[in-house]
Amino acid sequence: MTGGLLIEADGLGAVRGERILFSGLHLSLRPGEALVLRGPNGSGKSTLLRMLAGLSQPATGEVKSSGAHHWLGHRDGIKPHETPRQHLTHWARVWGSTLSPEGIAKSMGLERPMDVPGRLLSAGQRRRTALGRLLLVERPIWLLDEPFNALDAEGRDLLASLIAAQLELGGGVIAALHGDVPFGASREVVL
Amino acid sequence: MRSPAPIRAAFGQALAEAWAGGAGALLPIGFFAGAAMLVPFTVGSEANQLAAIGTGVLWVALALASLVSMERLFQADLEDGTLELWAQEACPLFLIATAKIFAHWTVSGLPLVLLTPLIGITLQLPADQLLPAMLAYGLGGLAFFSWGGVAGALAASVPRGGLLIALLALPLFVPTAIFGALAAEPGAVGPNILFLAASTLFALAVAPFAASAALRLAVD
């Protein structure tokens, strides 16, 4: 419907309080593309991602999306009582995934904390659990807000390879990032 | 995607969360029983007097107890990021909100209703009135939890929003409380129970949509 584009945003504007964060922003994502959102703290990267995800209404402009997306926000979405196994099983049920949540948890390096409740997991383990959600069902668009936060070197490599695999499958990724980009980014959008 | 799986999963997750909270799930029951138990000490243990005010006292206790742990119902989801995920589901948010409110009622509301005959006995209610009264409390409790859910959703982004929840929800309780008290009165069943049922149906029909609209605002 959007001519082969996964996401097309037209004339997006965002206002916070009295301040204009950005306006007239155009953005498109094609299959196999990874887009990196850049900008200092408070420049509206998260706001833009939330608009693309449909969580926030843009002040101006519109977002057209031609497929389902996975979301990874600042908050991992893991309940204090939930273990990685329970968390992935829960969302597998919601999304009708036939993959084994245990298998995904293992591939995310969560074999040992598989049955540890969320409140006792380290920030990196919680993030790995949340990243496991991306593998439960195939979705063409990934929207990631600073996904490398809290990950160790091995976790960063793991996520970089997940992103590479997603691009290979013809999916697209939009990620807000600080620092270096550990994966092959197609373009950068500076806010 | 039009399968009931997300609704069932949301229900199950809310149940698990309530039980994982330990004694938190029992708080409304303790509050309800405690408040009702205080009454004989404050108004005296004379049977006629107690029986006269017993049903009304139980309604007040039920209304207040239904709000006791409402604060965390949606706030926890907002804080840990679960609400963001639900808000992006293909499954409409009002169904998820309904599942969560219903799970909360199962854990905290149903036990209150099951407890009413026991408390009714201590308040000297006539024995043959206990079961009809329980039906009325059951219907009323559903309405209280539905409106409480709306208030909980509205206050989700407010830290320590317990008072706000009470201020928002209590006015909505009024019709249910009026018809409920009339229906639970000894020897006067008739149309009042139907009006009570109607007010509960209205709450069940409206609350999910109001709660989901409030949650969309909270997540924005």
UniProtKB/TrEMBL annotation, chain A:
Domain ABC transporter positions: 7-191
A Pfam family recorded for this sequence: ABC_tran
Keyword Membrane: yes
Protein name, per record: Heme ABC exporter ATP-binding protein CcmA
Enzyme Commission number(s): 3.6.3.41
Keywords: ATP-binding, Cytochrome c-type biogenesis, Hydrolase, Membrane, Nucleotide-binding, Translocase, Transport
Organism: Henriciella mobilis
Entry keyword annotation includes Transport: yes
GO terms assigned for molecular function: ATP binding; ATP hydrolysis activity; transmembrane transporter activity
One of the GO biological process terms: cytochrome complex assembly
Top-level taxon of the source organism: Bacteria
